[in-house]
UniProtKB/TrEMBL annotation:
Family membership: Belongs to the bacterial PQQ dehydrogenase family.
Phylogenetic placement of the source organism: Bacteria, Pseudomonadati, Pseudomonadota, Alphaproteobacteria, Sphingomonadales
Keyword terms: Disulfide bond, Metal-binding, Oxidoreductase, Periplasm, PQQ, Signal
Designated name of the protein: Methanol/ethanol family PQQ-dependent dehydrogenase
Compartments, as annotated in UniProt: Periplasm
Origin species: Sphingomonas naphthae
Required cofactor(s): pyrroloquinoline quinone
Domain of life, per lineage: Bacteria
CDD domains assigned to the protein according to its UniProt record, in alphabetical order: PQQ_ADH_I
InterPro entries: ADHI, PQQ_b-propeller_rpt, PQQ_MeOH/EtOH_DH, PQQ_rpt_dom, Quinoprotein_ADH-like_sf, Quinoprotein_DH_CS
Signal peptide: 1-24
Pyrrolo-quinoline quinone repeat domain location: 48-362, 461-544
Length: 582
């Protein structure tokens, strides 16, 4: 961890803009709010992170299906170039003949969607001393009107002209010297760009914020740690929760809870759903109480930033399980009654279903084979802790070591799952690993790692770590699984063609039968696939695209697991596939 906290990157700002100026005749004016809301039903483009505001990552396209996917071939590959590899976790945005992808080290590219030719490239000017927890990744951009907007490792939000790559506005969101960073794809709701910060390992305060999409000016700010004051239209609004209700003394000032993965939006309830990260420090003995609102999903009013409800997956988290994973709205019957639900596959090993209108607990079922920290959840949605498996309180040096499963990298980490409107299953990229974990004394220091814990990650099984699992949310039952030797660290795509796509660290993009899990196709991209695939229709053909480039948290934090994948080459390329013309 000491090596990570000292990570420094120095870059020269480069803006290459080869596209013509302004909006030429025949070019579209740009996506509207109505276009973004309708994204999941308009397969001619990909306008949002998650392929729709609900982020179900489901496409109604059927040109590529289980019967012909084996014929899929590359249309082109576009290199990000340079020496800046390390973890290409981006999801492409596709609009008006252009594919937009972010790259590691806070870069944004525009490629021609027909040829792969680069139109322009923007490299953010990053200062020395940035402190990203889990590699120099970026997961994607947001598009609106004439703008393409993304976040940077030094906690800035930058809007570029989508045709030229020129800066429209650049706003500082937080202080990188205090440990803040930003890696998630922002989202646009009601003419506001909405995002969350990163940095929970440095004792920051998590915040979900909204800015005017045209000016970048702050509209509202909602801290995710109880006791901190929110902002609305330049004035203090309301305190999050109640000061000192679940944090002692001044601990709420360094409580973590970063909403570092971004959110989803449900037009039916007009609610944003943001997950929050771990409490700081990891050493739970130093912060008695539930430590609200860490390791939770928050339902937030997009107009005011007020929290409408919350559900805490791991109260008093002592394992870095977080609650930051995506919360996906879906509708289904419960007890014969159609309900508005939401699902999350949590790092703590349980697959949750909640009533998304009020946050009421519906169910929690294991989706990995070994869970040691709790024996399940009661009817009220509270975990049944196994106290002996909480890391011990430190004395002069360190506390009692325990073995915990899942490991802190989670039964599922950041990589987004998909929901199929065709099968009714969620497709979850899971990992089977555990850790030895112990607590250590720690004191807060601005810009320094604030863990108070040590750990060693270990695989649970010799033959696999990663497992793509199809889960029936009605029962929690695993309907099928695909096992992978290395951890799975990329997103998932489902389609009405009875297909599920995901990538592997070994370099493959793979396609599976959505009903049975049978592997139908694979392609070697040359580096680990840790991005999120998308699909769209263009000129009468269906395309599938994914970023290739190994990196992320596993090689940095993975312990014995990291050693097992250290031979994988880094890379940086956008791969696009289609069926050959007959």
């Amino acid at each position: 961890m000491k090596a990570l906290s000292g990570l420094t990157v120095s870059l020269v700002a480069i803006t290459l803009a080869t596209a013509g100026p302004g909006t030429a005749a025949g070019q579209k004016a740009g996506p509207t709010q109505a276009d973004l809301i309708a994204d999941e039903a308009t397969p001619g483009d990909v306008l949002t992170y998650g392929m729709g505001p609900r982020a179900q990552r489901f496409s109604p396209l059927t040109r590529i299906d289980a019967s012909n996917v084996g014929k899929l071939v590359p249309a082109f590959a576009a290199s990000l170039g340079g020496e800046k590899m390390r973890g290409q976790e981006s999801q492409p945005i596709v609009y008006d003949g252009t594919i937009y992808v972010t790259g590691s080290y806070s870069r944004l590219y525009a490629f021609d969607a027909k040829t792969g030719e680069e139109k322009w490239e923007y490299n953010a000017r990053l200062p020395d001393g940035i402190m990203p927890c889990c590699d120099v990744v970026n997961r994607g951009a947001a598009i609106y009107g004439d703008k393409i907007i993304f976040a940077t490792l030094d906690a800035h939000l930058i809007a570029l002209n989508r045709l030229t790559g020129k800066v429209v506005w650049n706003k500082k969101a937080a202080d990188f010297e205090a440990g803040y960073s930003m890696t998630a794809a922002p989202m646009i709701v009601k003419d506001k760009i909405i995002y969350g910060n990163s940095g929970g390992e440095f004792g920051i305060i998590g915040r979900v914020e909204a800015r005017d999409v045209n000016t970048g000016d702050l509209v509202w700010s909602r801290p995710t740690i109880e006791g901190n004051m929110g902002q609305l239209n330049g004035k203090d609004s309301t305190v999050t929760g109640k000061t000192n209700a679940s944090w002692q003394g001044d601990q709420y000032k360094t409580g973590g809870g970063a909403p570092w993965l971004g959110g989803t939006y449900d037009p039916d309830t007009n609610l944003l759903f943001f997950g929050t990260g771990n409490p700081a420090p990891w050493n739970s003995h130093l912060r008695p109480g539930d430590n609200l609102y860490t390791s939770s999903t928050l339902a937030i009013d997009p107009d005011t930033g007020e929290i409408k409800w919350h559900y805490q997956y791991t109260p008093h988290d002592g394992w870095d399980f977080d609650g930051v994973n995506e919360f996906i709205p879906f509708d289904a019957k419960v007890g014969g009654k159609m309900m508005k639900l939401g699902a999350q596959a949590n790092r703590n090993g349980y697959f949750f279903v909640l009533d998304r209108t009020n946050g009421k607990f519906v169910s929690a079922n294991p989706f990995v084979s070994k869970i040691t920290w709790a024996s399940g959840y009661d009817k009220a949605g509270k975990p049944k802790f196994i106290d002996a498996n909480r890391p011990g309180a430190p004395s002069a040096e360190k506390g009692t070591t325990v073995f915990s499963a899942p490991a802190f990298l989670g039964a599922k980490n950041w990589m987004p799952m998909a929901y199929s409107q065709q099968t009714g299953y969620f497709y979850v990229p899971a990992n089977e690993w555990g850790m030895d974990i112990w607590n250590e004394p720690i004191a807060y220091k601005k810009g320094a790692a604030y863990l108070g814990a040590g750990f060693t990650i270990k695989p649970l099984y010799d033959d696999y770590i990663g497992a793509l699992r199809a889960i029936d949310p009605a029962t929690g039952k695993i309907m099928w699984e695909y096992k992978n030797k290395a951890p799975l660290w990329g997103g998932v795509l489902s389609t009405a063609g009875n297909l599920v796509f995901t990538g592997t660290p070994e370099g493959y993009l793979k396609a599976f039968d959505a009903k049975t899990g049978k592997e139908l196709w694979k392609f070697q991209t040359g580096s680990g696939v840790v991005g999120s695939p998308v699909t769209w229709e263009q000129d009468g053909e269906q395309f599938v695209a994914v970023m290739s480039g190994w990196g992320g948290a596993v090689p940095l934090w993975g312990g014995e697991v990291a050693k097992a994948v250290q031979h994988i080459n880094q890379g940086g390329a956008l791969w696009v596939f289609k069926l050959p013309k007959s």
